[in-house]
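Why predict the complex rather than its parts? Because the way molecules touch one another can change local conformation, and only a joint prediction can capture that. The input here totals 376 residues.
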Amino acid sequence: MQSLTLNQKLGRFIVNWVFLFLVWLMFTSTLFWQEVLVGAVLSMLISLASIRLFTCCTLSIFNPVKIFWMVWYFFVFLKLLVVANLDVARRVISPSLPINPGIVKFKTKLTTNYSKMVLANSITLTPGTLSVDVIGDTFYIHWIDVETTDPEEAFKIIAEPFEKVLLKIF
Amino acid sequence: MSILEIIGGVLLVIGSSFLFLGGLGIYRMPDTYNRLQAGTKATTLGGMSLVLGVGFLEPAWIWKALIIIIFIAYSNPISSHALARANYRRGHYPFIKSKDKENMDAYQEVVPHTKNKEDKL
Amino acid sequence: MIYIIYYSLALMALGMIFSAIRFVQGPTAADRTVAMDTLTTIGVAALVLLGYMFKRFIYVDVALIYAVLGFIGVIVIARYLEGAL
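Output of the joint prediction:
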């Protein structure tokens, strides 16, 4: 693990603090001042202790352009999630069980670990695909209805809509 | 009936239908990977929309419902990925329907298939 | 409204029965774990819905903790099956 500069540490600390504090507010769902004070202190302590563990992102995450792309990503994801569920429903209900499973692989252009995790999780929830493993920049995907075994083609079908947006965020 | 109750009721029906389909998919699919596909996707959307429906019906609960939704959306893909990987490394290879059996399994370049696998769990 | 809740609970019970059958007869350990994961998610949703039906807020907290524990359990079983534990 590489050593972090003070700037990176401070950025991570503030991002973690803000997110943990938001989670605390959602948990207690009250704005009573004692609760808010305890939440602020506790989330500060936890984010201090876990600077090295939560490696999501630094202060640049609050850039409005990135926030816009995050919301956009959410809608892309939601649409594909609904499509995926209708697809699974069709396959499960039809009596002949129309599947043609197999494992394909493709390479991604993303570099950071966190963005690869987000991409893998999104792939798992989109139509007919389940990420089995990620090694370096190669994704191994179990596909319920294999259309092509060529990595480039598979990348175009499975991951392109997500990666375009993710490259703008991270 | 207010508009919130109508939205909540519709979300309840959608969510429980997908939860049922998840259970049915787990029962019908031929191997572990396909079961993971059906189970993960259907129960994720089903659970999310059902909990959101309850959040609409009882607006004071919406924040905690949102936490449950975020947690389901975050944890279900991770656990299914971990299970799929563990299952492959354990020596259970995916069920392949098509004729072209060699090219359909790209993961065997990482974890080579063992010929005589003993009877594992 | 109450009929919609009954309908949802009945559908969820059917789903739980199907995954319980898979849990009992699943040939490998991973199959049983998948079935358990599905049971956990359906159970979380059912707890939240029952909490709404009985007007008990505490059920939602129980559901949240159940989701967290189920997730940790699945991860631990997966690590064990992989031989890393």
